[in-house]
Write a structure and sequence with these properties.
This protein is an alpha/beta fold. It contains eleven helices and 17 strands. The structure holds NADP nicotinamide-adenine-dinucleotide phosphate and zinc ion.
């Protein structure tokens, strides 16, 4: 076992604090990674505060991990020492079920998540990327092109794939009118991808101060969602809307904006349910409400390669790990431009 340092939450109300723990020595199929940067996802906050009711403590969050390979097991063929790599939300799955066979491991009933999930090797719990190093099976490690800035690439491992995957699944392409709800970590990546796919992109925001940034990032239009008159101008006009909102909100305001056969896809996971949708909004124009979870490993690599080709990365605010608790408070106030990334060089001995 190898001593590892990181930051952990010990209860749902305590701030994150320095923590020392052990990781396994690399097995034949494992890659050991020195973590350089880790993005801060709103899911980290939901889980640290036990808002989904499934948290185990101590918890080392972090699933937007990038770093360099420092060791490889004897059967590792796809990676070598020194490679730039990433790890996202998953570190394992059963490998045999229909979801795994379709390269959709995120939907496997036995998917193993990067943290707050049982460690299939030790019988303990997985610890995530707010730490100095991680050991991961090679099948769940991604290559990161030298064309990408490593720190700004970290958020692609969750915010990137979680928005790329539904935009691809619902075939967002040139000529489509697409809405993105919420300009945070996921929302700003969604705008970049929808814009790159050639769609006409409209941001729905509760923060008028983000309008200029949204347009710089790739939105064609910005709607202040609290203003019903602005919303009404877009009735029955969207092919697809992706909501990244991390709180319970009124879905009817958005289903009403879909064209016939349009889809409202939810990726935000609030702690409280959304109010029930108005069925009339759905049946009269055969509209759908759907959900989507991150993306499979194959699609994550495709997304990373697409980003390298199109020079897409996240807009980040870099922080030392000692500022993580303040960063959480700012995310909760929708005050992040547009993803915090932890510089793990700031980690010191516990
Ligand atoms: P974030 O950076 O906090 O962004 C969420 C944005 O939603 C905020 O910036 C804000 O944008 C808007 N918002 C917040 N509260 C709102 C409210 N009460 N009403 C309307 N809009 C509100 O969070 P994130 O990291 O992008 O994550 C977003 C959600 O996705 C979280 O629930 C997270 O757990 C979930 N998630 C899901 C998956 C998945 O696989 N499905 C993966 C990762 C994350 P404006 O200021 O523009 O209004
Ligand atoms: Zn995430």
């Amino acid at each position: 076992m190898q001593k590892t340092i990181g930051y952990a939450a010990h209860t749902k109300t305590s701030p994150l604090a320095p923590f020392s723990f052990e990781r396994r020595e690399p097995l034949p199929n494992d890659v050991q990674i020195k973590i350089l940067f880790c993005g801060v996802c709103h899911s980290d906050i939901h889980q640290v505060r036990n808002e989904w009711g499934n948290s185990t403590f101590p918890m080392v969050p972090g699933h937007e991990i990038v770093g360099k390979v420092t060791q490889v097991g004897s059967e590792v063929t796809r990676f070598k020492i020194g490679d730039s790599v990433g790890v996202g939300c998953m570190v394992g799955s059963c490998g045999t079920c229909p979801d795994c066979q379709d390269n959709l491991e995120q939907y496997c009933n036995n998917a193993e998540f990067t943290y707050n999930s049982p460690d299939k090797h030790s019988g303990g719990t997985n610890y995530g990327g707010y730490s100095g190093q991680i050991v991961v099976n090679q099948d769940f490690v991604l290559h990161i092109s030298a064309k990408l800035d490593l720190a700004a690439a970290a958020p692609l491992l969750c915010a990137g794939i979680t928005t790329y995957s539904p935009l691809k699944h619902w075939n967002v392409s040139k000529g489509d009118k697409v809405g993105i709800v919420g300009l945070g970590g996921l929302g700003h990546m969604a705008i970049k991808f929808a814009h790159a796919f050639g769609a006409h992109v409209v941001l729905f925001t509760t923060s008028p101060g983000k309008t200029e940034d949204a347009k710089r990032i790739g939105a064609d239009d910005v709607v202040i969602s609290k203003n019903p008159e602005e919303m009404d101008k877009h009735i029955a006009s969207f092919d697809f809307i992706l909501s990244t909102v991390a709180a319970s909100h009124n879905l009817d305001a958005y289903t009403a904006l879909l064209k016939r056969d349009g889809t409202l896809c939810l990726v935000g996971v609030p702690d409280q349910p959304h109010p029930s949708p108005a069925i009339g909004n759905l049946i009269f124009k055969r509209r759908s409400i759907a959900g989507s979870l991150i993306g499979g490993i194959k699609e994550t690599q495709e997304m990373l390669d697409f980003c390298a080709e199109h020079a897409i990365t996240s807009d980040i605010e870099m922080i030392p790990i000692q500022q993580i608790n303040e960063a959480y408070e700012r995310v909760l106030k929708s005050d992040v431009k547009y993803r915090f990334v932890i510089d793990l060089a700031s980690l010191t001995e516990v």
